[in-house]
Design a protein that fits this description.
Helix content is about 40%, strand content about 20%. By secondary structure, the chain is α/β, with parallel strands linked by helices. It has two domains: about 200 residues, Isopropylmalate Dehydrogenase (3-Layer(aba) Sandwich); about 130 residues, Isopropylmalate Dehydrogenase (3-Layer(aba) Sandwich), CATH 3.40.718. α2 links the parallel β1 and β2. It is globular. Bound molecules: 1,4-dihydronicotinamide adenine dinucleotide and magnesium ion. The site of 1,4-dihydronicotinamide adenine dinucleotide has 21 residues, from α5. Magnesium ion binds next to α9.
């Protein structure tokens, strides 16, 4: 290998799927920030291929993902996703047509949702300061209540019946528990709270608890506790500092992570990663929020969730330093009070984006390459 080959920066190919509502606005902002970071640091290259898969595409063609679409996606190192959902398409069609149609075949079984109170922002909780709320929620992302098991019979009759069966397999519970324990182990407090509802749900959730206890034996340095999901909501509000890493089922973690986002200040800052820890398929990174029809096109969407998820994407790709630098720059911009209306500010999407780009250039512009 020639010496010059050694110094060539790593290059990443990212699939961008902005999709619906504010998705295109926040993904555009994140791409601008990621490109500025790559140019400024010079330690990695990043390229985006845009996929025009959205509810508009669905309305025109009857499909969210064209034939062969998943095969094209597979060629990328990661996927940056906006949000899917349109007022004139039922939500279960859009969600299963695009987002879950990627997560499930790509075995993105670990959904990771970090939350913290950013410097310069405020939690709606009285007395909750930066540092008190710093959690990672690990959500089982392949089965449970969203396994797609169920059906409807006798449509339109008074005795119409619908079932929605939650499915828990030892294989899937074990792999998410192992992932959650590893996540807890990698964080300073090494504390994992296992959320359950095994008092009322006496089959799947009991298996969940049993597997958690078995996997715990492999991680003697991780402290665990167990919470019923209803009591968990109280603990999140009343004792946020007592929590660190949290593992919960698909539905329960879906709800708890929206609560977490609100407690940290806004759903507009919360990121999510859909990971295939085996790395056989690309993982997908997105803001937690949806397509937010009420603010679409107004230029006021908070891009911070998509910046944070981009930072998580960089870490997953192995660019730990760039990941940290990006999140630090975003937090410094928040600290300066350049925040959108959901965080109590007056800045527009573009103002926050430009401020983050400026911050990156000013702080890291002289970094040796
Ligand atoms: P939503 O997250 O789109 O909006 C909830 C509220 O939060 C709205 O008032 C919205 O204006 C505000 N909000 C969301 N993101 C924001 C941001 N970045 N900056 C400032 N304010 C923000 O949730 P909603 O209204 O329940 O769903 C709307 C559509 O999005 C539905 O079609 C739903 O199915 C879809 N959805 C899609 C998701 C995805 O693609 N992963 C996740 C959640 C919802
Ligand atoms: Mg949700």
């Amino acid at each position: 290998m020639s010496p010059s080959a050694i110094s060539i920066a790593k290059s990443y190919s990212i699939a961008s799927i902005p999709a619906d509502g504010i998705g295109p606005e926040v993904v555009k902002a994140a791409i601008a920030v990621l490109k500025a970071l790559s140019e400024t640091l010079g330690t990695f290259d990043i390229e985006f291929k845009h996929y025009d898969w959205s509810s508009e595409t669905y309305k025109k063609t009857g499909k969210y993902i064209p034939d062969g679409g998943l095969e094209s996606l597979r060629k990328h190192d990661a996927i940056l996703f906006g949000a899917v959902g349109a007022p004139d398409v039922p939500d279960h069609i859009s969600l299963w047509g695009l987002r879950l149609a990627i997560c499930q075949p790509f075995q993105q079984y670990a959904n990771v949702r970090p939350t913290k109170v950013f410097r310069g922002t405020q939690s709606p909780l009285r007395n909750c300061k930066t540092g008190d709320l710093d959690w990672v929620i690990v959500r089982e992302n392949s089965e449970g209540e969203y396994a797609g098991q169920g059906g409807r019979s006798h449509r339109g009759q008074a005795w119409e019946t619908a079932t929605e069966v939650a499915m828990f397999t030892r294989h899937a519970v074990e792999r998410i528990m192992r992932f959650a324990f590893q996540t807890a182990q990698s964080r300073p407090r090494k504390l994992l709270t296992v959320v359950t509802k095994s008092n009322a749900q006496r089959n799947g959730m009991v298996l969940w608890d049993e597997v958690a206890a078995e996997v715990a034996e492999e991680f003697p340095d991780v402290t665990t506790d167990k919470m019923l999901v209803d009591a968990m909501t109280c603990r999140m509000v009343l004792k946020p500092e007592s929590l660190d890493t949290i593992v919960a089922t698909n539905l329960q973690a879906d709800i708890l992570s929206d609560l977490a986002a609100a407690l940290a200040g806004s759903i507009g800052i919360a990121p999510t990663s859909n990971l295939d820890p085996s790395r056989q398929n690309p993982s997908m990174f997105e803001p937690i929020h949806g397509s937010a029809f009420d603010i679409t096109g107004k230029g006021v969407a908070n891009p911070v969730a998509t910046f944070w998820t981009s930072s998580e994407m960089l870490a997953w790709l192995g660019e730990e330093d760039a990941s940290k630098k990006l999140l630090d720059a975003v937090e410094r911009v928040c600290e300066k009070g350049i925040v959108t209306a959901d965080l109590g500010g007056v800045a527009k999407t573009e103002d926050v984006t430009n401020a983050v780009i400026e911050e990156i250039k000013e702080s890291y512009g002289n970094t040796s390459k």
